[in-house]
Amino acid sequence: MALPPVPAPGKDLLDTARARIAHFNGHFIDGAWRAQDGESIAVINPADESILTHIAAGGAAEVDLAVAAARRAFENPLWANMPAAQREGLLLRLADLVGENLAEIAVIETLDNGMPFALANAMVGGAVSAIRYNAGWPRRLSGENVAMSVPGNWHGYTTHDALGVAALIVPWNAPFAITCSKVSAALAAGCTVVLKPAELAPLSGMRLAELVKEAGFPDGCVNVVTGLGSDAGAALVAHPGVDKISFTGSTATGKAIAHACVDSMKRLSLELGGKSAVVVFPDADLEKAIPAVAMGIFMNSGQVCAAGSRLFVHEDIHDQFVAGLVAFAEKLTVGDGTADGTALGPLISAGQKERVLRYIEAGKAEGATLAAGGDGDVPADSGYYVRPTIFADAKPEMSIVRDEIFGPVLSVMKFSDENFDDLARRANDSIYGLSAYVWTRNLASAHAMAKRLRAGSVKINGSGMEFALPFGGFRQSGMGRENGSEGVLAFTETKSVMIGWSE
């Protein structure tokens, strides 16, 4: 993903963003901020380990209030009977407001998550596109007329009815973009929302709540409860007033949520982990492939569920390709996301940094060849930094190949022929199946691999997010899909109607 150059945010913009987030110390319920006494959670800037602000540590009581507000809004004729064109207009107004405040939101995202400001700009811009795409769906959720075969005179049709109250549980790696995609899809379907942002990066989601209010949505349509996943998140999952859970995060947490929803039969969408394969054929355009493959794992410091972390390169170009990756990685500037020229920001937390460094040590101990990076030694006195790391001579049984590391660590393996079945078997050798990437100039190779790869998303000669295409995973990468028509329909139930009459 090539990002356009964006100047570092100036002091005025940084001051504006910091002033904005200073008052995010409560929950947004029924259209207003509700302060909470008692415990709070420090929000840490991962670039320098300073405290940005404190958020409320909500739990079952706050979730009760938020779900009740969402239920009232869902049943209120103002929302329930709102014409589709009006709902579309509200979403388009929200997209406009996000666009008008793009720079400020991007700074909040950089301070909160650590991602480079240029990436945050691109992510917020993508969020605008997601909202605009979903804004078109209220007028298209029309169901279908069905030709009837039962005896008599019948008219049959289907409708897509809003599920009700949707609980949206959002991760910390791309919080604003994921939040906007989920919120706008749920609202387009006619649901109301309780959002639980990640406690490690909650601030841009709280800013979105203010913009929802400014856009003119009825109070209670979008509510935000902050807190730990084990408290606020668990209370949302267990709440009998919630009709739908949409969760993005780790596979382990997704499994726990799925177990918790069995008794209540809540509708469930899970977008979980990945260990995505990248296949580079010898005819690939190396000038384009090398930087794209590198940023496919190093973007956002590898904290991307769809990151291409397992690289298969044909032996004819293997050495040249690895040398190109190493040269590219060594030129990437690691540092504070608010500084000019930063390509990789910090990891989200001290715990995540320790996890990534443990995997790097494991890779060395298991016999992979460390070709680049491999430590956390960067020119910074504080912050959770890890250099972009490349392992050559990786083997399928190694932990760096098997496990989702969620850091800037690439494992490279070699293949010697172009047997599509064998190559796909190696690429599919994972418990995950979120994304896959292929680099080739041969149309036959592209189609052959796309057919064989067991992944929810296959991209040929590039990457990126298209909101008109569904996104989700095979196997333990989740269930259900986001984006596209399926992403909106996931917040609906299909109803069949039969009307009989006599002549």
Keywords:
503 residues, alpha/beta, Aldehyde Dehydrogenase, Chain A, domain 1, Aldehyde Dehydrogenase, Chain A, domain 2, 2 domains, seven-stranded mixed β-sheet, 17 helices
What does this structure look like?
This protein is an alpha/beta fold. The chain has two domains: 13-272 and 477-495, Aldehyde Dehydrogenase, Chain A, domain 1; 276-466, 3-Layer(aba) Sandwich (Aldehyde Dehydrogenase, Chain A, domain 2), CATH 3.40.309.10. The protein is 39% helix and 20% strand. It contains 17 helices and 20 strands. The protein has helices at 11-21, 60-75, 77-80, 84-100, 102-113, 117-135, 175-189, 203-215, 229-238, 251-260, 286-298, 318-331, 350-365, 399-402, 420-427, 443-452, 484-489; strands at 26-29, 32-35, 40-44, 51-56, 145-146, 153-162, 165-169, 192-196, 222-224, 244-248, 267-271, 276-280, 308-314, 369-372, 389-392, 409-415, 435-439, 457-460, 478-479, 492-501. Strands 14-15-16-13-12-17-18 form a seven-stranded mixed sheet, sandwiched between helices. A six-stranded mixed sheet has the order 9-8-7-10-11-19, with helices on both faces.
At the fold tier of CATH, the topology name of the largest domain is: Aldehyde Dehydrogenase, Chain A, domain 1
Give the termini separation.
Answer: 63 Å
Please give the radius of gyration in angstroms. Answer: 23 Å
What characteristic shape results from the CA principal axes? globular
CATH evolutionary superfamily of the largest domain: Aldehyde Dehydrogenase, Chain A, domain 1
Assembly state here?
A: single chain
- The helix fraction, in percent, is 25-40%
Note the main sheet: 7 strands, mixed
Total E-strand runs: 20
CATH architecture call of the largest domain: 3-Layer(aba) Sandwich
